[in-house]
Amino acid sequence: MKSSLQVLLFAPATFLLLSLGNASGAAAQSTPNEPLHVAIEAFADQQGVFPGQTFRVALVERIQPGWHTYWINPGDAGQATKLRWTLPEGYRVAEVQWPVPQVFRSGPLVTYGYEGEAILLQDVRAPDRLGSAPAQLSVEAQWLACRDICIPEHGVAHVTLRQQPLAARPGPAASPALFAAAAQRLPKPSPWRASLAADAASVTLTVHGIARHLPQLAQAQFLPLTWGEIDNATQQRGVRRGADLLLTLKRGDLRSSSIARLDGILVLGPGSGELRGQGYLVHALTSDAGAPLAR
What we know:
Layout: E1 3-5, E2 38-44, E3 48-49, E4 54-63, E5 69-75, E6 82-86, E7 92-93, E8 102-106, E9 109-114, E10 117-125, E11 135-146, E12 150-163, H1 176-185, E13 188-189, E14 194-198, E15 202-207, E16 220-224, E17 237-241, E18 244-250, E19 261-268, E20 279-285
Parallel strand pairs: 3-12, 13-20
Antiparallel strand pairs: 1-17, 2-4, 4-10, 5-9, 6-11, 7-10, 8-9, 11-12, 14-15, 15-18, 16-19, 17-18, 19-20
């Protein structure tokens, strides 16, 4: 017998979005004399780097109260922050590691983003041979700052590292508290296997085994990594079937396309006990047999 599970749709936001990109609308343009609503700063987790080392860099957005920026999938409106690094020859930077976003509701729109402070992490690999001069890393960031209006903004931040061509071990750590806090905000790899079934109207996402760990009043919400796969504003219906959690999601603007895979974050909210506030990366395939563990 199925038992109902309450599914969280987070508290409404108190702003009016003027959309950009995925929905119709307009964005205001910042003027040369207008102060930015988001201040940025860049950090590295090491003071120095040795040949072949992989280290982390962080782009910190400090967002004015009442304003917000956007996740990789902004939802029904908005635009994700974009980063472009200029690195010394031979250095390689990986994709952004996005922290779990907040969910904002404004009228019929649901968007995903950040208030207060957002820390975007990336891994950087140094080349196998280094010079003796300091390494200069620069990042150009573009973001959309929104409150009752949306304003495109941009800025540049820099990191300087000692290059240690003969070092036998990693250099000293830098900003450990900042990087520890950033790591805590990242979604965790899911220990639960996921699968999905889809038709023209809806998607049923099954997270296998998770119900054993959730209290009866647990609240959960799935946030898709890709725009258009599900309808963000429609209430997500969750039920338990034995040890499994089944979430029914309405198809989004891409409903005319077949869907064989669904990637996103499962956020566990109030009533979830020790798992409350945590986000888990979920990768679901249409074939239950052979669906891998999410990672």
